[in-house]
Amino acid sequence: MPQKRNLPIGIQAFDKLRRGGHYYVDKTPHLLRLVSEGGYFFLSRPRRFGKSLLLDTLKCLFEGRQDLFEGLFILEQWDWQVRHPVIRLSFADGVLTTRETLDVHIDELLRAEASRLEVALTNTSIPGRFRELIQQAHAVHGQRAVVLIDEYDKPILDNITEPERARAVREGLKNLYSVLKDADPHLRFCLLTGVSKFSKVSLFSGLNNLNDITLDEPYADICGYTDHDVDTVFAAELPGLDRAEIRDWYNGYRWGGADTPSVYNPFDLLLLFQKRRFAPYWFESATPTFLVDLLSERGVFTPRLEAMQTEAELLGRFDVDGIATEALLFQTGYLTVHAVEEPMTGYWLYTLGYPNREVESSLNQALLPALGVPESPRQRLSLFRILQAHDLDALEVHFKALFASLPHDWYRNNPIARYEGHYASVFYSHFAALGLRISVEDSSHMGKVDMAVEFGGHVYVFEFKVVEQVPQGRALQQIKDKGYADKYRGRGQPIHLIGVEFSRVQRQVVAFEVETVPVT
């Protein structure tokens, strides 16, 4: 029986983790590869993915703290006699809302690092002090310096809903990071981590040798836990938990093609092991309200979030004055890579989708009020009970009541109501908020059905129509004509074909036709 160890919940210090009898997933093969390549690197990962621990591990490595690496891959691969001065700057703590408070914070960081490295600073400007810190660290310690910057973008993200403040803070950070370009003779290694990838032009001022490894397949699992890690390192924690449910609820983050490993967010997994119950731990920890507001403002068709295609260039574009929906959702961790294609040489297409059941359920729950639905636990419980009983008459009544609850002023004040997908979005998000297994635009040999839901040994196949656009009575007929249910036959499960028709004029479900396919 594997021996239990301490769960490293919230631990970001490598020495504390290694000396405290905690579980540790060995990431040093990735670090050896990264350090061997040398240069300036950038890594984007969502919050609570272990970026701070990664940087602290690198700090201990370059400082030559050999005892902390006993039993790890890198122990026999590293020259422990060579020790580098490490400058580590973190913007993780506090909320900085002005350029002035940012400059004070940066100056405090530089002073603290200078004191720790026993370096005297005489310059007065921030760029001057940072440049002097790097040069003097090299001179005093006899080895080139290492610069590690944690949450490099947090001051901007904290002000992203206030563009003027965000721009001012961005210029303050640019003032700091611009030093790295000409510091190359004094630097051994540099890594910046954060949630978002701001454009080099707007933030890094010519630092064109910054190597973005966010989507590089060799580093796909540099942060997070793989299935192999769960089954080996955390084997002692698994008894009593449904392994398939762990995978379904929490696995699925991917930064590369189908051949790259998918990973779990460590925060989710560690809290599951501690509390022994499934819950949206990561989502509830700090989902930004501006994300929901932005998706609402842009009228996002929520079923499309399951399979959203985008170009590689758009995926990496993020700035105060222009945040692409795809980039925002991907970089913050609400969507992840499902597939990578190169249909033409040099032209890369990424298909994004939810990483797992936790994110799909929680995000749609958060989006329902933006769709005009006063979502509540009572409504979710009602839907759950109806599906438990497989009561299709009650399902019709439930959704008619749901649409009737949308206030008239909401229609008048929200442009999303004009999108033909609004009704389908409400339907999909209400099911998704319950955490059900849903397929959107699921392909058959004749086409794509709008939505299929599997629950309790039954399959529900939905087609949606707006009666002002097509003749009434076509939704159910299309399911039958196109054979949308064929792929579910032979399972020995009841299949319910449901044609749902809406009226924009009446703002209501005007037809809810059902036909059940006998079990074969």
From TrEMBL:
Superkingdom of origin: Bacteria
Residue ranges of domain AAA-ATPase-like in the record: 8-204
InterPro entries reported in the protein's UniProt record: AAA-ATPase-like_dom, PDDEXK_9
Name used for this protein in its record: PD-(D/E)XK nuclease superfamily protein
PANTHER family recorded: AAA-ATPASE-LIKE DOMAIN-CONTAINING PROTEIN, CONSERVED PROTEIN, WITH A WEAK D-GALACTARATE DEHYDRATASE/ALTRONATE HYDROLASE DOMAIN
Organism, scientific name: Ectothiorhodospira marina
Any Pfam family the entry gives: PDDEXK_9
